[in-house]
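Format notes (please read before filing issues)

Several people have asked whether sequences and structure tokens are stored in separate files. They are not. Every record keeps both together, in the order shown below: the sequence lines, then the token lines. Line labels are part of the format and must not be stripped during preprocessing.
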Amino acid sequence: MVDEQQASQLPKPSGYKILCAIPDIEAKFDGGLLKAEKTVKDEEFMTTVLFVVSLGPDCYKDQSRFPNGPYCKEGDFILVRPHTGSRVSIHGRSFRLINDDSVEAIVEDPRGIHRS
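Then the structure lines:
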């Protein structure tokens, strides 16, 4: 039996990039009505809440730009602008690669946060 090593499907961010996962979008409206698949995809595309998966090796290294240290860490939920980053889908799951200075806030509990 040959021991095969599988490559990770997740990209490893380089430089000052941050790999973020897009949290699951609710399939129903607050009133219980099911959302159309296009509506779910649109909400996913425009979401401002992301989950930090990993940081590139150069994130937050520039002391002059980040005198107070990193804006976020792995495992944080963050707020970004809706069109921020490069989008990629891996096995049906959406991710974004964003710049380290694109983080606008850390969110303790992302439930209930929606783009206005």
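For reference, the curators noted about this record: The chain has one domain: 17-107. Residues 37-46 form the longest helix (10 residues).
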